[in-house]
Amino acid sequence: MAFGFLLPKDGNFFDLFDKQVDYAVQAATHFAKIVADFKITDEEVEIMKEIEHHGDQITHQIMDQLNKTFITPFDREDIHSLSKELDDIIDMLYTITKRLRVYRILGENRNLAEFARVIEMSVKGVAQAIKGLRNMKKNKEILKACVEVNSLENLGDKMRDDLLTELFEKHSKDPLLVVKWKDIYQDAETVLDVCEDAVHVIESILVKQA
Length: 210
Known about the structure:
Elements (H helix, E strand, L loop, with lengths): L12 H24 L5 H27 L7 H28 L6 H22 L7 H32 L4 H35 L1
């Protein structure tokens, strides 16, 4: 059942979620580019900051609209939770980007580049699932995207563990470097955790709408 006619024309939750997840995809794509180039500049950080700022604006719009709207397309708590998870994805990618700049450790690291590609795939999976919410009849496609995000999170767990093992073995004599990269790898895996949390909210929405 469509509820669009009950919402202000400029406050459609589906449109707002589409915009928010598009910024999440932009952040993931930009992060993947940074680590694939094996360098990070102040300009790159500024671009990520701008994406994060736009994402925050959409988050505030969703919360404001939630407070103004009596009837919503799905449960209010799910709208709040889903918006928060998307905001966290963007925030985490911005945080990692800043850390790479502050730590000044980003050189050729194909492991992180591969991790970034997995993150990008996961965020795009979240985007596919969210954009499918406009039409609940396509729930199989939505669930397929959710399953893919869950699989990528499991892959991320293994990648993080393998990378930390390699880090401790190769750089045990440089504890400061170990600490820095440990932060980066763990934060990268956290992004995948948040993506998984987002699709869990989406799966909950599908169950309630069934």
